[in-house]
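*Target chain*
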Amino acid sequence: TGWARLGRILILVGELNRAEELYNLLLEQATNEKDKADYLNRLGKIKNEQGKYQEAKDFYKRSLAIQKQICSANDPTIASVLN
């Protein structure tokens, strides 16, 4: 969605707190597992950029768990989350 794209831009320009607020809101409103996994992954990226590595790891793990449920084992999306 346009909101998710805005979140990516906010991350790129260093507006991490604003991006985090946006992705938390999008996560609450997500209607499917794919979107939830994507938003969790983005929140992990934000926490990583903030130096909050344990929180980042937790978000990445949650995203990966969803991806493993909805994707095939060789789906490149899983590799992206693992990276």
The helical segments are 2-12, 16-29, 33-49, 53-70, 76-82.
